[in-house]
Design goal:
By secondary structure, this protein is an alpha+beta fold. It has two domains: 199 residues, Ferritin (Up-down Bundle), CATH 1.20.1260; 181 residues, endopeptidase domain like (from Nostoc punctiforme) (endopeptidase fold (from Nostoc punctiforme)), CATH 3.90.1720.10. A hairpin with a 2-residue loop joins strand 1 and strand 2. The longest helix is centred in the N-terminal third of the chain and has 54 residues. It comes from Streptomyces olivoverticillatus.
Amino acid sequence: MVSYHDLYGCHVDQWKKAADDWIALSRRSLAAADDVRAQGKMPLDEHWADATGKKAGKRLEDIANRLEAGGDIIKGVAMVLDALAYSMEWSQRTLFHAAELAREYGLRIQDGRAIGAYSGAAPTGPNVPQNVRDAYAKESAHISEVDGLIEESLRQASQADAKASAELAKLAKTINVASPSQAHNDIETETAHIEIDILRGDIPVGKDPHLVRAWWDGLTSEQQKALMRADPVTIADLKGLPPDVGKELRGLDGKIDRVEMVRYALDHWNKKDELDYGPVGNCTNFVSSSLEAGGMQKKIDPWLGLLGDNTWGRESGLGIGWDWADKHAYHSKSWARAEGLQNFLLHNGSKEVPRSEARPGDIVFYEQVAPDHETAQGESHHAAVVTSVTPDGDIKLTQHTSSFQNVSLAAREHVATNNHGEQRIRIVRPSPNWY
């Protein structure tokens, strides 16, 4: 359990610096893996084809794999440290707010608790003047508010400390992992989930609305925005926040409820799609379903219905197991094709935004830049929903094919680049203009 004095005096900037150092180390490890393959393994395969050359090439590939896996694991360490740093910063801010309120109310902090003029000497009896009774009641309410914030700040800090400690100890045992796939898909994915879990632990879920409001008011505007981007669904569901918070999270224009869109993605990331579009279309089918859950209305051609070129949406279908007919006659061309959905959105009010401005509810498209045997150059071939942006700026995706929840865009982009060559990441903010 983190104590009052531990939290009050901790230097969160040191954890942030440590996380930055681990990120730099991760990049060097990944760059070294690329160099070993490009300058060692590839020339060896081209110019030394005998048994000795193959043996040397196999050894170089093993070294590259270990460097790549190590880079991903190291990034996982950085994710945990970043989450710990921001969690401690936010919980420390709540503690400072409690101390500020104590001074404002004429209280003092002793052994981590608020103390007032009547502490330990409550006025009792029939002869106590009314003004004294009123002063005692007022002081008691102030003490309760301050103590509630202190307890909440220590709860937040303690959960972050415990989760980060456990995950870092677990990561320390992965130093011999030589499989990039295991590092990408299992280890780094788990650390991304721990990162979100630590940040979510700073939200006073289920607490009294008055405490929630006092907690929120104590955060800086920047910290409030960071929490809204990191976990929009939990913040939107919290009782006691100003109404404007929910409006901003859901979308000020009222056309798409971004919170419900993200909620759907997070709840359905590992659930089977109603129709199987295969590896080419399931990802975009999932994104369209998320947009539908967020309330995006259909766009139907007055003559051709959903068969028109500039349409989006789906109908119920035949319901007799004819998947081909359901996919082609009852779903628009843009429903389950990344290139089609991207172009439809951009031609109908939506806009592309830079990575630095990404927020939950945006759509990520992967556009093929390098020559590839599966996808034409310049074509977008994959889509995912942005479900979180952590305070360090890392964009988290939720997707199908393959199914992942709240994984790092940077990590998945690295995998796509390794498998298919250079990618252009396009982030589109849905903003329908047909209704």
